[in-house]
Automatic annotation (TrEMBL):
Residues 425-549 form the Thiamine pyrophosphate enzyme TPP-binding domain. It comes from Candidatus Accumulibacter adjunctus. PANTHER family: 2-SUCCINYL-5-ENOLPYRUVYL-6-HYDROXY-3-CYCLOHEXENE-1-CARBOXYLATE SYNTHASE, PROTEIN PHYLLO, CHLOROPLASTIC. This is 2-succinyl-5-enolpyruvyl-6-hydroxy-3-cyclohexene-1-carboxylate synthase. Homodimer. The keyword Manganese applies.
C-alpha cells in the first residue's frame, strides 16, 4: 500500500498548485490578513514572486483596500482570510464590489466539512455567507491525496474569468483544510508555475446590438437632446468619443466627476459641470424639455439632476451601459443598450447624424459660462467647500488620482470641481454609496500611484484604523471636519430636537493626533491659504499625510445657501435654497 502524505504536506502542495495556476492566469495582487486556517495558502502566496502580497490585519479594511486596488488597476485582486468571522468582515466591501462591478477574488480558508455545524470554534457556513452578491462560489472540499493539478489550474483560470465577465464582480473560492495545516519539519519545494503555460484571463467587452444602436441613432438625429454621463469605469478613449458625439449632435454633455470627463485634453467644449446650479427649478433651463436624453453609466449623484431627469420622463430616455445591469430607476427608458459604450459612440459617429436645431445648446453654454464666473468669484471664501475643492484640484499634477468620499464631499465635488486641461482620475464608492471603508479604498487606489483622498470627518473616523496600512503609500488624506454629519443640515431632520444627538453626531476625536499614533504625518489647516501651503508640502514630501480642515458648519451652510441664491439669480430662477441631496 502506498503511504499517504500527511495533511500538512498535502495542504501546502495543494495551495502551491492553486497559487501557481492563479499566477499563470494573470493574478498579480493579493491582500491577506493573518490567520491559522489560511496558513497553507498564505505561505504559498508569500513564496510566489510574481504575485505581490500585502498584509493588512483588519479583514474589513483589507477587503476595501483590495477593492480600491482592483478599481485602479482594472483587474482582479485576491483576498485571503482565515475561517469564521474573519471572512464575515468582508461583507461590506463584497456588496460594494457587487453593485460597482469590481472584480474581487475571495479566497476564504475554511474548516473541513466534518466540523461545520458541530460546534467547532471559528466555524460558520461560509458557502452561503455572501448570497446573491457573488458572481460564483466554488467549494472544492479539502485536498485529497490524489488531487489533480490540472483541475486546480483550470479552476484558477475559471474563477478569474468569472470575476471579469460577463459582469465583473466578486467570486468566492472557499478552501477547506484539515490539520496539521503545514508540514512538520522541512517544507516541500513549491510549484512556482514556471513549468506551465501562462494563459492570462482577459476582460471581454459586451458587443452592443447594432440594430438597436442604429435605431436609437436615427431617433436622436437632428432633435434637441442632452447627454448625461454618470460615474463608471468607462473604457480608454470614451471621453474623446462621447465628446465628439456631443459635438456632432451639438448638444450639451452633463458630466459628473466620477465620469472622468471633466478633466483632460479631450474636447470639453460641450461639457457642462455647473448643472447643479442652472437646472434648479424654476430656472428657464430647468423648464426646457429635450426630446431625448442619453444617459451613460450610473444614475446621477445629485438630487438636482435626478429631479430634472424625472421631470423629463416623457422624453425618449436611452440608457447606455457596458454590462448587463438594467440602470433605469425611473422606469421610463425607451431603450437600454447593453454593450461597450466606446463602440456605441463610434458607431453613431460613423452614421450621418444631424445636429440639434440651431440655438438649442446656446442657453446651456451661456449658463455654464455665467456659473463658472460666479464660482470663480467665490473662490476666496473661508469655511466654504466651494473654495476648498478647486484649491485642492489646482495643486494636483497631471495623472494624479483623487478618491472622493460619500455623503457631502462627493456632492460638493460635483458642484464645485470645475473642469480643466490636466488629466485627473477620480474614484469613489458609489455602488452602495456608504461611508464605510472609504479610507481603505483610497489606500488601495494609492497602491497604484499617488492619490488624494477627500473625506468627511465621520467617514474618516468610521475607517480610522486603516491608517495602519498607510505606510509606504503616497497619499494625502484631506479631512473636511465640519463637526459631524453635515449633509443632514440640508434635510428636514435638521429641525428636530434630537437632530444633534442622532443625526449630526459630532465627535471629539483629535484626528491629527490619531494619525500620529499610526505614524502618519498630520497637520490642522486653519485657513484656505494655510491648507494650500500644507498641501504643497505634503505633495512634495510624498508618503502618507493627513490634513484636517476645520469647517464652521453653520457658516458653511449659510455660504452654501448664499451661493445657491446667487446662482439662482444668475440662472434667472426665483429660489436658490439648496435642496437636500
Amino acid at each position: 500500500m502506498t503511504k499517504q502524505p500527511q495533511h500538512g504536506v498535502l495542504n501546502l502542495r495543494y495551495a502551491q498548485a492553486l497559487v501557481a495556476g492563479l499566477c499563470a492566469a494573470g493574478l498579480r495582487d493579493l491582500v491577506l490578513s493573518p490567520g491559522s486556517r489560511s496558513s497553507p495558502l498564505a505561505l504559498a502566496f508569500l513564496r510566489q514572486p510574481a504575485i505581490s502580497s500585502q498584509v493588512v490585519v483588519d479583514e474589513r479594511s483589507a477587503a476595501f483596500l483590495a477593492l480600491g486596488m482592483a478599481k485602479a488597476a482594472r483587474r482582479p485582486v485576491a483576498l485571503l482570510a482565515t475561517s469564521g468571522s474573519a471572512v464575515a468582515n468582508w461583507l461590506p466591501a463584497v456588496v460594494e464590489a457587487d453593485l460597482a462591478a469590481v472584480p474581487l477574488l475571495l479566497l476564504s480558508a475554511d474548516r473541513p466539512p466534518e466540523l461545520v455545524g458541530w460546534g467547532a470554534s471559528q466555524t460558520i457556513d461560509q458557502q452561503r455567507l455572501f448570497g446573491a452578491h457573488l458572481r460564483a462560489c466554488h467549494s472544492p472540499g479539502p485536498p485529497a491525496p490524489d488531487f489533480a493539478v490540472d483541475y486546480l489550474h483550470s479552476l484558477a483560470r475559471r474563477v478569474l474569468a468569472e470575476c471579469c465577465s460577463p459582469l465583473p464582480g466578486p467570486v468566492q473560492l472557499n478552501l477547506a483544510f484539515r490539520e496539521p495545516l503545514l508540514p512538520v519539519g522541512a517544507l516541500p519545494a513549491g510549484d512556482s508555475g514556471g513549468g506551465q503555460a501562462v494563459v492570462p484571463v482577459g476582460r471581454p467587452r459586451l458587443l452592443p446590438d447594432r440594430q438597436l444602436v442604429a435605431e436609437c441613432g436615427a431617433a436622436i438625429s437632428g432633435r434637441p437632446g442632452v447627454i448625461v454621463c454618470g460615474g463608471d469605469d468607462y473604457p480608454p478613449g470614451f471621453a474623446a468619443a462621447v465628446s465628439a458625439l456631443a459635438r456632432q449632435l451639438d448638444c450639451p454633455l452633463l458630466a459628473e466627476p466620477l465620469s472622468n470627463l471633466r478633466f483632460g485634453g479631450h474636447d470639453r467644449s460641450r461639457i457642462c459641470v455647473h448643472y447643479d446650479a442652472f437646472l434648479r427649478p424654476p430656472s428657464a433651463l430647468a423648464a426646457r424639455r429635450p426630446e431625448w436624453l442619453l444617459r451613460c453609466g450610473s444614475f446621477p449623484v445629485t438630487r438636482t439632476l435626478q429631479d430634472w431627469l424625472h421631470a423629463n420622463r416623457t422624453a425618449r430616455h436611452i440608457v447606455l451601459g457596458a454590462d448587463s445591469r438594467w440602470r433605469d430607476p425611473l422606469h421610463c427608458a425607451a431603450a437600454v443598450i447593453q454593450g461597450d459604450p466606446l463602440a456605441v459612440c463610434n458607431d453613431w459617429q460613423a452614421m450621418p447624424l444631424q445636429a440639434a436645431p440651431p440655438g438649442w445648446r446656446d442657453a446651456f453654454a451661456h449658463a455654464e459660462t455665467q456659473l463658472a464666473a460666479l464660482a470663480a468669484a467665490w473662490r476666496s471664501r473661508e469655511d466654504f467647500e466651494g473654495a476648498l475643492i478647486p484649491a485642492l484640484l489646482d495643486e494636483l499634477p497631471t495623472g494624479h488620482r483623487v478618491f472622493c468620499g460619500s455623503s457631502l464631499p462627493i456632492r460638493d465635488l460635483d458642484a464645485f470641481s470645475g473642469s480643466g486641461e490636466r488629466a485627473l482620475r477620480f474614484f469613489g464608492n458609489r455602488g452602495v454609496s456608504g461611508i464605510d471603508g472609504n479610507l481603505s479604498t483610497a489606500l488601495g487606489v494609492a497602491s497604484t500611484g499617488p492619490c488624494v483622498a477627500l473625506l468627511g470627518d465621520l467617514t474618516l473616523q468610521h475607517d480610522l484604523t486603516a491608517l495602519a496600512a498607510a505606510g509606504g503609500r503616497d497619499i494625502v488624506v484631506v479631512v473636511i471636519n465640519n463637526g459631524g454629519g453635515g449633509i443632514f443640515e440640508y434635510l428636514p431632520v435638521a429641525t428636530l430636537p434630537e437632530f444633534e444627538r442622532a443625526w449630526l453626531t459630532p465627535q471629539a476625536v483629535d484626528l491629527v493626533a490619531a494619525a500620529a499614533a499610526f505614524g502618519v504625518a498630520g497637520e490642522r489647516c486653519a485657513s484656505l491659504g494655510g491648507f494650500t501651503t500644507a498641501l504643497r508640502r505634503a505633495l512634495q514630501r510624498g508618503g502618507p499625510t493627513l490634513l484636517e480642515v476645520p469647517i464652521d458648519r453653520r457658516r458653511s451652510v449659510a455660504q452654501h445657501r448664499a451661493f445657491w441664491q446667487a446662482a439662482a439669480d444668475v440662472a434667472g430662477s426665483r429660489t436658490g435654497d439648496r435642496q437636500a441631496r
